[in-house]
Each structure stands twice: as structure tokens, then as C-alpha cells.
Specification:
The structure is a homodimer.
Chain A (H helix, E strand, L loop, with lengths): L2 E6 L7 H16 L3 E6 L5 H12 L5 H8 L1 H16 L4 E4 L6 E3 L8 E4 L2 H8 L3 E5 L2 E3 L5 E3 L4 H12 L4 E6 L20 E3 H9 L7 H10 L3 E5 L7 E4 L11 E5 L3 E9 L4 H11 L4 E6 L6 E8 L4 H14 L4 E5 L2 E7 L9 H11 L6 E5 L2 E7 L3 H13 L1
Parallel strand pairs in A: 1-2, 1-9, 2-6, 3-6, 9-11, 10-12
Antiparallel strand pairs in A: 4-5, 7-8, 11-12, 13-18, 14-16, 14-17, 15-16, 18-20, 19-20
Chain lengths: ~400, ~400
């Protein structure tokens, strides 16, 4: 008994049969005595198809019109799901983002949710209807439609759960939960019963994208209990919350991220402020830096190495070229054949020797480490891209079995 | 120079090429110094495809959800057209029905436009933007989306023209204007330069569906000058207004309507109130009657014959069956193999002998007339469906050449 928010992605509602499957999950939850708000994405490839239609006509169409175009996708899926729920004999009503009260910033294509006016949602819940809400979309102060960017439906779901003080926010996906490693690659990967927000955030940034990061950050901020579970197999998934049940395992996951470029700036002046000058130029262009390594200075020069998302690699090199011209330095190197392998676990805060055990596992597997970065709950290493899967398997074996 | 409303149907924006064609027409009008509001329907078969998607999931889905589903169609076409206009270097903004201020009644699927709040439209026109408005859709007092029924985009266009006091409302179609008869059937059919609202209304009800009737009625009420013209051929079309230029032709068109069933109720009592009792039963079920013929009473009984749309034929017979059981009568006959052929022309009000000339033409062509109905500006006859084309040709020859 309570208010449950359920979110289904595009593949979960891709066709009539899948829509009916979702309607069954939703009505089962409702019939157990819960109030239910369902957040859905556009069906299957609808969003991509709409984008392609727009690009065919005008590759440089304005973002406002692209948002107008894309938001039609969820409009279709919410009405279909509402009709599917009606067919199963439960009262349902679909609401577009603006009808559900999603007030957003004006940044078309990447709007932020400013607040949710819950008046309509409350009215429909009070009328005991299952409310089907269009994810990914809102309205700005000009009364124009906006979208929240990729993964925006997760954010919509968590935002509604927070605003409506829901008892739980269930994110249905095509996997059964959060695993200690990619189960398609590591056969003995284990599904976690519980995980903390911080752990799943680290896993997400490390390339094990189960949940959209913004949505987890929001869930953490408003203390919304999340559950990641499968829309195809009816069994409990993984609960994400502030303090997870202490598991026997020291680490909660091993993740691989191949979307990495390593850039080295050689022979920069070894003087105060050099790092600030270098990284502020990247920040000004909106390029996020991940791991940073600075060599010990010699002959008044040093080398600075950092990693960025591979899509930002070339632009970062351009920026560094202008840095060398204006500030000084002798050379730039870029390596796109690297991958980041990481272990995450709240447990390592209180356990020593985790790093040593990880490095030992990599050594035994003959994997060379080129950079290392650590935080309270994670250790990341940069390795050759071709060694990445081997590294994940070795680490997983060492820690989880 | 002025404010021009242009309306394009689904086939005019069916694909990227057609959308660019429409964008060219619109921007040419804009570059001539006009303010332009464009009303568009959903692309090609989009509305039918969306309806099919809904019916697949739930053939009895609520009308509210069907409206939510269908209105996604125009959302796609308006954003695509706005982007096409942007590509041609003109400023454009797309507006959904609710953004354009279309306040409607609550009747999902067949809502009436109550009023248009022109605030947003005025703002965009003042900013010298070409405004692309979603036809067919509005919003009701519950903040829910509604649709105006088939042909609703014509109504949207005329309503905007009336509310914004536009100088002209151009309805683009796949024909070059209004013809004296169907040009595919009658090779010497002539395009009319001008026609009155009443004439085009009669033509529309008679099966020569060029413009949606509600839109013409609204244009007449608010004195909006309409022009029916082709989106594919750039030449003047037919102007529809209160007083048309007096043409040399006595009649402005010959039309055929095969969507007719003739129903006869035999042997009803010849007493006052019988017709009322009979037709009020049909009215209660929303069945419209067209031509009515009542035989002269004999032996205290009479026969009542009337025509209805063929889709209502079976239901009307059912209703008549219950009428006979409850009120009296001896038999019911239905004939689905009939057609209505009509001539329309404001000129006939002041000219005698029009009916005689029409009947002579039909006699010469060996077409038998089974019913006759007349109004100030039209004469309709019911004939065998297989004679209909012959009848149209004979009448057209007699009057127009």
C-alpha cells in the first residue's frame, strides 16, 4: 500500500504486445492497493526516427522545433498505455509533461526540471486513476515544450517520486537489476540486492550505465528509494538507497569504460597556476576531465596527462595546441586505445588492501596499468583497451568469488 | 500586404519533399510582405496510422486517449514545416492547438471551437515570425487535448482567420479550385473564379466535398474570404465570399453523392404527428435525414420515404422497425443503389425554368427520377446509382456549355 512510481523505457513499450505487458505490471501493482504513477518513454526507436525526419528536412533545425518534434513520441506511448490499462479494466489517464506540471528551464534539448506543480497529479491520484506521464519532457516559462536530454525519462520518474513523496520509484529495464559486472561478459556476475546511491553513481560514471546519473543524483538528494528491475521477468531487482544492507562483498561492482581518450601535454612550465590555466581552458569549452596525472617536475618542466570522453578527444587536443602556443609546452600526445576499469564499493572505505589486491589481480593477468585514480569508494585504472575485458574478469574473480 | 492564413492538408505535407514545397509557398507569401499563419494537418496517413495503433491495443479506448494519441500527428508536421521554413531563411515558430489559444468544448473527437485566445499568435506575428499552427486540435476546460473531427483543420484555419481578422484564408488542396462538376468525370468541367458561401455549402452537402462544411459556415458567419487553390500548381484558385461576381452561368456546379440510402416506411397511419414521431426517433440517434417524400394519404394510411447517409442505413431500418411495432405501419423498404444528383447556383433564385431544364436533360438521357427536393439555390434528384454519372454529364451539358 502506498504511492509507487514506475518507469518504463522505450524498449518496454516498443509494440502493442509490450505495451500490454507493461499494462499488466501496472494494473497488478494498482490492484494490490497502491496508487500508481507510470512514466514512459517514446516507443522503441520513435525518438531516433523523429530526429531523422527532422534532420532530413533541416539538419540545422532549431532546438525548439526539435523538442516540439521529439515530444510527440511520448505523447503516442502514454495514450497507448492508458488505453491498454483501460482494456484491463482499470481507470487510467495520460498526461503530457506540461499537464503533469513539469516546469523546466528554457534550454531546449537539455532542459533542467525546475519544479513540479503536483496539482493535476494529486487530483488524478485522488480520483484513483492510474496516471501515465510522458517522461523526458516539460514546459518552459514561454509555454514551449522542452526535453531533458537522453535518459531524461529516468529523471522525470525520480522527480515525480520526490515531488509526490512516493514510497518507491521502480525503474524497469531489460536487465534484472544491478550486477557486480556486465553479466553478458562475466558469467558469474552477481545481481546485487541493494546498493547505495554513491556506488551506483560511481558505476554509472564508470560505464556501467544502468540508470541515468542525473536521476540517481536527484534520488539521493531527495532520498527517493529506487528499484532497478526487469519489465520481462517478474522478480525483485536491486534496491538503491542511502545505506545499503551490508553485503558480504567488499566491492559492489567492476565496470569498464571504453569511452576514454588519454591526452598528455609534455614539457609545460613547472610553476604555480599552470594546471589551473590548462584545465580552465577545457572547462570553458564544457569538456569534462576524468583522471589527472602530473609528473614530478624536472628541469623546470613537467608533463600533465588527463583523460576525457573519446568524443571530446580531438577538441581537447585543439585546445591544448592553443595552450602550448600561448602558455608554453613542447608536445601533445593522444591515445584513443585505452579503457578505464574500476571497482566500486562503499566497503572499501573501511577496508585496507583493496588497491593492492586489485593491482595483484591485474599483474597476475598480465595487464599493464598506465594511470590510477582513487576516491573513497572506487579505484580506477587506465589500461590498454584490448586488455579491458581480461582486467574486468581478473578483478571480478579476485573480489567477488 | 496583409495577414494571410494558409491551410495545407495531410497530402500536401506527406513527405520531406512536399513539406519543402509548402515551405516555399509560405515563404514566398511572407517575402511579398505579408504576415503569414499556416495551419497544417498531420502528414499523409499519420492520423489513420495512429488510430490503427490505438485500435490494435484497445478497440474501445476512451475518446480522450484517442485524442491524446491523434494530436501527436500535427505536432510532428508543424515542427517539420517550421524547420523547413527556417531552412529557407525565414523565422518560424510552430504552435500546438492549445498554444495557439484554441479553447474548445469538451467533446473528445468532435469538439467545437469555443474561442481563440490570440495573445500568443499576436505576439509571434508582432515578432514577424511565420506561425505554423497545428490544425484539428484544441484544449478543453480540463486542460486536456481535443480534436475537431474530420476536416477539422479547415475549421481551425477559418477560425484563426476570423479571430485574427485575416485578409484572406487560403485552403490549399490537390485540386485547382471549385469546378462546375468533378473534372475527373466531366472533361469540360470549368473552374469557377468565384462562388458564394451558400453555393459551396450546398455543393459540399451534395457530395462535392472541397471544403469542410463547418469551416464554410464559420467563414460565412465571420465573413472570412476563402480561396481554394492547389498546393502543386501555382495559379489562382476559386474565391469563396458572400457575393460572388455574377457569372454568366446560371448554375455554379453539378454534384453527385452516392453516400445515400433510401428508406420507405409503408402504410403508416395518416394522422397528425406521425411524421414528428417518426423523425424524432431518428434525430434521437443522431441520424440526419436529407430528402423526405410523403405520399398522399389513401385509406387512412400513407407512405413516408426519406434518405440518410448509407452508413446510417441499417441503423435507420432498425429504428423504423421499432417504430412500426410501437406506432404502427406495414412494411419497411431500403434501397442502397441510389445516388443524389444536384445542381447548385445562386442564379436560379431569379431564373425560372431551371428545374424544367434539368428534368428535360435527364429525360433526354433516359434517367429516371425517383425523388426530388429543392431549395432556393439547389435542385436535387434521386436516381439509380448506375445512372448517376450519366445524369451529371447530361445536366452539365445542358447548363454549362
Amino acid at each position: 500500500m502506498g504511492l509507487i512510481v514506475q518507469k518504463f523505457g522505450g524498449s518496454s513499450v516498443a509494440n502493442a504486445e509490450r505495451v500490454m505487458n507493461v499494462a499488466n505490471i501496472v494494473t497488478d501493482t494498482y490492484k494490490q492497493g497502491n496508487d500508481v504513477i507510470v512514466v514512459v518513454s517514446a516507443q522503441g526507436d520513435t525518438t531516433d526516427d523523429l530526429i531523422a525526419k527532422g534532420k532530413e528536412i533541416n539538419p540545422k533545425g532549431s532546438k525548439r522545433e526539435m523538442d516540439m518534434l521529439m515530444t510527440a513520441g511520448e505523447q503516442i506511448s502514454i495514450s497507448l498505455l492508458a488505453m491498454a490499462i483501460e482494456k484491463l479494466g482499470c481507470p487510467a489517464i495520460s498526461l503530457l509533461g506540461w499537464q503533469a506540471g513539469f516546469n523546466s528551464s528554457s534550454a531546449y534539448g537539455a532542459a533542467r526540471i525546475k519544479n513540479i506543480n503536483c496539482e493535476r497529479l494529486n487530483k488524478e491520484i485522488d480520483s484513483h486513476r492510474i496516471v501515465v506521464v510522458a517522461g523526458f519532457q516539460g514546459i518552459n516559462k514561454y509555454d514551449d515544450l522542452t526535453t531533458f536530454g537522453r535518459g531524461g525519462s529516468d529523471t522525470s520518474a525520480v522527480a515525480i517520486a520526490a515531488a509526490m513523496r512516493a514510497d518507491k520509484c521502480q525503474i524497469f529495464t531489460d536487465v534484472e537489476g544491478v550486477y557486480t559486472a556486465d553479466p553478458r561478459k562475466i558469467p558469474n556476475a552477481k545481481k546485487l540486492d541493494e546498493i547505495t546511491y554513491d556506488e551506483i553513481l560511481e558505476l554509472a560514471t564508470l560505464g556501467a550505465q544502468v540508470l541515468n546519473n542525473r536521476s540517481v543524483e536527484m534520488a539521493k538528494k531527495y532520498n527517493v528509494e529506487l528499484e532497478v528491475l526487469s519489465s520481462l521477468v517478474r522478480k525483485p531487482g536491486t534496491i538503491v538507497k542511502e545505506v545499503a544492507k551490508v553485503e558480504k562483498m567488499l566491492i559492489s561492482g567492476v565496470a569498464k569504460d571504453c569511452d576514454v581518450s588519454r591526452i598528455s601535454v609534455i614539457g609545460v612550465s613547472d610553476e604555480p597556476g599552470i594546471a589551473f590555466k590548462l584545465f580552465s581552458r577545457l572547462a570553458a569549452k564544457g569538456i569534462n576531465i576524468d583522471i589527472i596525472l602530473q609528473s614530478v617536475g624536472r628541469n623546470n618542466t613537467k608533463d600533465i596527462t588527463f583523460t576525457v570522453a573519446r568524443s571530446n578527444g580531438e577538441e581537447a587536443v585543439e585546445i591544448m595546441r592553443s595552450f602550448i602556443e600561448n602558455v608554453g609546452g613542447s608536445d601533445i600526445m593522444i591515445d584513443n586505445k585505452v579503457a578505464k576499469v574500476s571497482i566500486v564499493g562503499a566497503g572499501m572505505e573501511t577496508h585496507s588492501g583493496v588497491a593492492a589486491k586489485m593491482f595483484e589481480a591485474l599483474y597476475s593477468a598480465h595487464v599493464n596499468i598506465s594511470m590510477i585514480a582513487t576516491s573513497e569508494i572506487k579505484i580506477s585504472v587506465l589500461v590498454d583497451e584490448e586488455d579491458a575485458d581480461k582486467a574486468v574478469a581478473a578483478i571480478h574473480d579476485a573480489f567477488i568469488n
